[in-house]
Amino acid sequence: MMTLKTTTAPLAKPLLDWYDRHHRDLPWRVSPPMAKRGIKADPYHVWLSEVMLQQTTVPAVKAYFLKFLARWPTVGDLAAAPSEDVMAAWAGLGYYARARNLKKCAEAVANDHSGVFPDTEDGLRALPGIGDYTAAAVAAIAFNRQAAVMDGNIERVISRLYAISTPLPAAKPLMKQKVALLTPSDRPGDFAQAMMDLGATICTPKRPACALCPFNGSCEALALHDPEHFPVKAAKKAKPVRVGAAFVAVTSDGEVLLRRRIESGLLGGMTEVPTTGWTARIDGETSADAAPFAADWQPSGTVTHVFTHFELRLSIWRVAIPGRINGDDGWWEPVTNLDAQALPTVMKKAITAAIPRAFQQSKDG
DNA sequence: AACTCGTGGAT
DNA sequence: TATCCAAGAGT
């Protein structure tokens, strides 16, 4: 007779035991030894780190997290900060809608919740920039709620544990059910973090270290001798290549013409040098005819930048002029102050192509 | 449901 | 070099 598989809930214990020994120490995390001494996670720290970590690697986040925390120690401080400062501090981290929503969320907490984060998944989910994942993660990690946390790491772990052959993203609801069944009432936050650490360090996309995995006696993908086959994903679309131009004008006083992009869409609300009207779907003009003002524009090479869904090749034009010229919009910024601007990486590349040492001229650098 | 939305490191 | 992909959210 066949043995019915027991409920999967008992898998939480070997995972938590593994986590107690092998957890990563991260700046925003209260590690098990600290928790044992009664240290509680700060919801502000948990929320800030979770937003930064959305589609972003741990190494990239660390410095930004520490910088934000030093500059805005509480959610109230962040709520009171000028948006331009927040966008400039976020520059380089990508997905800039996160920064816009971060500010909105901080304001909502400060103004509508007396400066205290909601302590339930539903309450958190209603805030700007907090989706299914982040609501569950903050509820579990900061408030010890038994929430089912599902991110890319956990999708991989679950898809292998149960050898789920349905492609993502269609398989997400099933995977979330599985996670909910596994999540314990005791230490749900550590369980979620343990699952993510496991996915990041053991159950990796390539060459998973199954010999070290606390689930290796239960993993169906390992039993099939092909863990790398999971998760199955839908095919991706090819990235189109778009072209455009960027214009770097420098006065004899060492000022560069900058302007602000519209609030929505690609690089929304960020600062740029004048560029032509390229988008993910439409090529922009590449010649100096499209410059913000007529001048002796000089070609300065091209910059290639790969976004998530398209590749951009920008023709760079530069000109040295005696003094300011009225552009239709924008402002003139000292080259020595470019580091303080909300310049996304693609714009730093464009400026560097025209002014090679532009970002080595900061006042305190 | 399918798109849009950055960046840099690993393989 | 090309591809993947990393603690996803908003529309």
TrEMBL record:
Task: Respond yes or no to whether keyword Metal-binding is given for this record.
Answer: yes
Cofactor: bound how, per the entry note? Binds 1 [4Fe-4S] cluster.
Residue ranges of the HhH-GPD domain? 52-201
Catalytic activity, reaction form: Hydrolyzes free adenine bases from 7,8-dihydro-8-oxoguanine:adenine mismatched double-stranded DNA, leaving an apurinic site
Q: Sorted alphabetically, which keywords does the UniProt record give?
A: 4Fe-4S, DNA damage, DNA repair, Glycosidase, Hydrolase, Iron, Iron-sulfur, Metal-binding
Q: Which SMART domains match?
A: ENDO3c, FES
InterPro entries attached here? Answer: A/G_AdeGlyc_MutY, DNA_glycosylase, Endonuclease-III-like_CS2, Endonuclease3_FeS-loop_motif, Endouclease-III_FeS-bd_BS, HhH-GPD_domain, HhH_base_excis_C, HhH_motif
From the UniProt record, which GO molecular function terms apply? 4 iron, 4 sulfur cluster binding; 8-oxo-7,8-dihydroguanine DNA N-glycosylase activity; adenine/guanine mispair binding; metal ion binding; oxidized purine DNA binding; purine-specific mismatch base pair DNA N-glycosylase activity
GO BP annotation list: base-excision repair; mismatch repair
Q: Does the keyword S-adenosyl-L-methionine apply?
A: no
- Per its Swiss-Prot or TrEMBL entry, what cofactor is needed? [4Fe-4S] cluster
In short, the EC number is 3.2.2.31
Enzyme class of the recorded protein, top EC level = hydrolase
Q: Name one Pfam family in it.
A: HHH
Instruction: Tell me its family.
Output: Belongs to the Nth/MutY family.
Q: What does this protein do?
A: Adenine glycosylase active on G-A mispairs. MutY also corrects error-prone DNA synthesis past GO lesions which are due to the oxidatively damaged form of guanine: 7,8-dihydro-8-oxoguanine (8-oxo-dGTP).
What is the name listed in the Swiss-Prot or TrEMBL entry for this protein? Answer: Adenine DNA glycosylase
Give the originating organism: Rhizobium metallidurans
